[in-house]
Each structure stands twice: as structure tokens, then as C-alpha cells.
Specification:
The complex is a heterodimer of chains A (about 240) and B (about 250).
Chain A: H1 2-9, H2 17-31, H3 36-52, H4 57-81, H5 86-107, H6 112-119, H7 126-155, H8 162-193, H9 212-230
Helix pairs in contact in A: 2-5, 2-9, 3-5, 4-5, 6-7, 7-8
Chain B: H1 3-20, H2 37-64, H3 68-84, H4 100-107, H5 109-127, H6 135-159, H7 164-190, H8 197-242
Classes of the chains: A mainly alpha (about 240), B mainly alpha (about 250).
Chain lengths: ~240, ~250
């Protein structure tokens, strides 16, 4: 998965996730404020930040394709639903793009285990982050397995017709389910062999220290937007 | 513009989209940024109590057996991969199964709220399907409503002594349909029609989604029956041994 690869190669990988989350939160706040022109400007700012963090044009355009394929038909539906309200549709598309890009900025600069390692510090979330960490670790193993089985089935005309397709997919899912439990049992035995009693001990991720100045700056920018709304700048 | 004409236009635009991008049908997930802030917060407020219940159920299970955490982690990976598989469709689009009906049958409704949410989170982060601001709405329609509808149908079918195939089919197909109905309602509430309000808008969104989602729901129902029949025939003992929280006859 491209986002994952980019995150490991990012120039901002070791920037504290707290800073990136606050910056993302600020973009999020601005995204929900009624300033379409500023949204457009912020899209350009985030695009610049993405390139600064090491995301190439080619990777960015590849990543952009999927959300665009979702945004365009969605906007089209809203356009017809609102009886041709073009302004609303354009604003919606811009907001959607802005918010997606702000999350992309975090996702493409912070590997998932690092982010989960950071979130693990919040005790009530620990069980969810543990489940998410295991899910992340094994979704690639299972995806690779599913791809191989799918390819083998396709090579044997397993998806030639609708009926055959459903049958093949059912075998794939059933087989994958059993494989999942086989791998899980092996994982469990390996943990038991190492004296694990259920607590998943992983090395904490390493980041640069949190820069409070940057946090204050980001929060200031965010609050600026709120003041603009309070002063009626959106009218 | 009359309602009929509007529906025809929407259907036309949607069919064009399916022809141009056959590999990506309009998914059940609401895209990032599509909902205004108040609706994002509203759906999060409805979803979080169920998530808390799910986390509490998992925590209780983990205290009893620490390895249940591992089971759920793997279940999350399985549901993620399942939802990324292409489901054959008669409408020309090839969409993806939600896996909720099947997941509830195997893991139970409350764990499925957490597992489904984790799968949705990774879909939003890694595949740009759905979003984080709309995670509350998407998780509510799929992981909460879908899960409980599937569970309710299973219970109801068991009470009426329906066969294993009938109950599995109904649970998976209805979970899918209800998920799409709730998604349509969520969009209609956020974008009410100028004439006719929320109801008219919901009608339009239903009509648009119905083109792909009704055949897909039937397809997913059949798929769930085939998968569970396969598991019952070839791995009944393993499934019975490993899964203690599910809702189906596979146990």
C-alpha cells in the first residue's frame, strides 16, 4: 500500500506525531469553517507540505485518484439532489479534498505502528490500539495470501461467470478464514514460547521531542479561524 | 425539475460513472468531508456508546482469556481483507462485500463493532475509502446498525426454526441493505432536497444506491451461505473450538 510505503520513507517520519495531529486538527477545523477560498488555499498549502515531506508528484497523483473517484460521483449526486446548486457542490468537493489531504499528511508521514505506539500512551485506548496493531501487522500477510489464491482461481477460470465467481470467492474466503486461524495459532504458540501472558510488549517508537512552540503556533492559526467566524468574516 | 426527471438524471450519471470506472462502484462509505461538522459530531455521539460497549465486552473477554485480543486482531485483518475483495455483480460494477453479516455470525455483534471500526479506520487511512471525520457515520451504519440487524435476524430466525442457510442469507443480505438505507438517510439528513426536504432527498439517495446495492446485498447473502457451509462442512470442529462468541449455527 502506497501510503504505508511513503510513511516509512518520509522526511518527517521522526517528527512527533502529536505535532502532526495538532496540525491536522487545525486543517480540520478550518475545513469545517465556511471559507471556500481559504479551503482552496489550504489545499495548495497541504500539497506543498506533502512534497516537502518527501511525497513525489507521481505518488501524489496515484493517491489522489481513489478519493477523486469517490468525490466526483458523490458531488454529482448532491448537485442533482440540490437541484443544480453548483456552489454547494464545489464547496463540498473542496472541503472533502482538504480534509482527505490533511489526513493524508499524517498518514503519509507517520507509519501506523508509530502512531499506534504514540496512542498507546492513552491507557483507555490501549486495548483498541493493541487490536489495531495486530490487525495492521497481519492484514498484509492475509492480503498477500488472498491475492495469490485469487490469481490461482482466475488462472483456472474461477471467475468466468457470476455463479462460478461467487463459488470461487466463497472458497477463497473460507480458506482465508482457516488460514487466519492457522497463523493465529502459530503466533499464539510463539508468544507462549517466549513467556508472554497476554500483554503485547513492543518497543516504543522513537520521535524527536515535542516542539511546544510549533504546537502553540498551530493552535493560534486554528483559533484565528474561529475568531474570523465570530467576527462574521464569512459573510 | 420534477422528481422523476431528477431520479432519471441521477441514475444516468451514476450508470455513466459505473461504465467509466467499473472497478470502483459508489461504496457504502461516506467520503471524507462529505458531512457538515454538526452531522459528523451527531453520528460520532451515536456511535461512541456502542464502541464503548464493544470495548467493555472485549476487555471482559480479555481478562478471562488474554489471547482473545489476538483473536480480535486477526479478525480485524480478516474483515479488512474480506472487504477489499471484489464481489462479482450482475450490474457491471464490482463492489466489495461489507463482511458484517459474516463477521457477526462468526464473532458476535459487540466485538464486531470494534473489529468493524478498526477495519473502517484502516480503509480510510490506507485505501482512502471513507474517512475519519465520517468514521462515526460509517461505523454507525455498518458496524453498529449492520451488526445488530444481522444479530437480530439470526435470533429471530433461530426462534422460528429457520434453516441455517435461510438465517445466514437473511442476516447478511439485510445487514447490507439496512447499512445502505442508513447511509442514504445520513446523506439525506445532511443534504435535504430544496423541495420535499429530507424525505425527498432520502428517496433519491435510496434510488441511486439501489442500482448497485440491492443486487450486491443478495450476492453477499449467497456468499455468506456458501462460506459458512464450506466452514461447517470442512472445519466445523475448528470453528466451534475457536469461536465462542458468535451467533450462528456454525458454533
Amino acid at each position: 500500500m502506497l501510503v504505508d510505503l511513503l510513511a516509512y520513507k518520509s522526511l518527517w517520519r521522526f517528527v512527533h506525531p502529536g505535532e502532526k495531529l495538532v496540525l491536522c486538527g487545525v486543517f480540520l477545523l478550518w475545513g469545517f469553517l465556511p471559507f471556500p477560498w481559504i479551503h482552496f488555499g489550504l489545499v495548495l498549502v497541504i500539497a506543498f507540505l506533502l512534497f516537502w515531506s518527501g511525497v513525489s508528484w507521481r505518488s501524489f497523483s496515484k493517491l489522489l485518484l481513489t478519493p477523486l473517484l469517490f468525490i466526483l460521483p458523490g458531488v454529482l449526486v448532491v448537485l442533482f439532489s440540490s437541484q443544480g446548486n453548483v456552489t454547494l457542490s464545489v464547496q463540498l468537493a473542496l472541503r472533502s479534498l482538504l480534509l482527505w489531504m490533511s489526513f493524508l499528511l499524517v498518514a503519509s508521514t507517520t507509519p501506523v505502528p508509530d502512531m499506534l505506539g504514540f496512542l498507546r500512551n492513552f491507557r483507555p485506548l490501549q486495548i483498541v490500539t493493541d487490536v489495531a496493531l495486530l490487525t495492521y501487522r497481519y492484514l498484509f500477510v492475509l492480503s498477500a495470501r488472498a491475492e495469490r489464491v485469487y490469481l490461482a482461481q482466475q488462472a483456472r477460470l474461477g471467475y468466468g461467470s457470476y455463479r462460478q465467481g461467487l463459488q470461487s470467492l466463497a472458497f477463497l474466503i473460507g480458506g482465508l478464514f482457516l488460514y487466519t486461524f492457522q497463523v493465529m495459532e502459530q503466533f499464539r504458540f510463539s508468544l507462549e514460547a517466549r513467556g508472554c501472558e497476554g500483554e503485547l510488549a513492543v518497543l516504543p517508537p522513537r520521535f524527536r521531542p515535542l516542539c511546544l512552540l510549533r504546537i502553540v503556533l498551530f493552535l493560534g492559526i486554528g483559533m484565528g479561524g474561529v475568531f474570523l467566524v465570530l467576527l462574521g468574516g464569512h459573510r | 425539475m420534477s422528481l422523476k426527471r431528477c431520479i432519471l438524471l441521477c441514475a444516468g450519471a451514476f450508470s455513466l460513472h459505473l461504465m467509466l470506472f467499473p472497478h470502483l462502484a459508489f461504496a457504502m462509505h461516506i467520503m471524507e468531508g462529505f458531512l457538515p461538522a454538526k452531522w459528523c459530531l451527531f453520528w460520532y455521539a451515536l456511535y461512541v456508546p456502542f464502541l464503548a460497549l464493544g470495548v467493555a465486552a472485549i476487555t471482559k473477554g480479555v481478562l478471562r482469556d488474554p489471547y482473545q485480543k489476538i483473536l480480535l486482531g486477526f479478525a480485524g485483518a480478516f474483515v479488512f481483507v474480506l472487504s477489499a475483495l471484489k464481489l462479482p455483480s450482475v450490474t457491471g460494477s464490482s463492489s466489495h462485500p461489507t463482511g458484517i453479516g459474516l463477521g457477526v455470525t462468526l464473532f458476535g455483534p459487540l466485538p464486531m463493532v470494534v473489529v468493524g471500526s478498526v477495519a473502517l479506520l484502516f480503509q480510510a487511512l490506507l485505501l482512502a475509502h471513507g474517512g475519519l471525520t465520517t468514521l462515526g457515520a460509517n461505523a454507525f451504519s455498518m458496524a453498529v446498525v449492520g451488526s445488530f440487524v444481522a444479530y437480530g435476524v439470526h435470533r429471530w430466525a433461530k426462534k422460528w426454526h429457520a434453516s441455517f442457510q435461510v438465517s445466514t442469507f437473511l442476516a447478511a443480505a439485510l445487514a447490507d441493505l439496512v447499512t445502505y438505507a442508513v447511509t442514504s438517510l445520513q446523506l439525506a439528513l445532511a443534504f435535504p432536497a430544496v423541495q420535499g426536504g429530507v424525505l425527498a432527498s432520502a428517496e433519491r439517495f435510496f434510488a441511486i444506491f439501489a442500482i448497485t446495492q440491492v443486487p450486491l446485498a443478495i450476492g453477499e447473502g449467497i456468499l455468506a451461505v456458501l462460506v459458512l457451509t464450506f466452514l461447517r462442512d470442512y472445519a466445523g470442529e475448528t470453528v466451534r473450538y475457536l469461536l465462542k462468541e458468535g451467533a450462528s449455527d456454525v458454533r
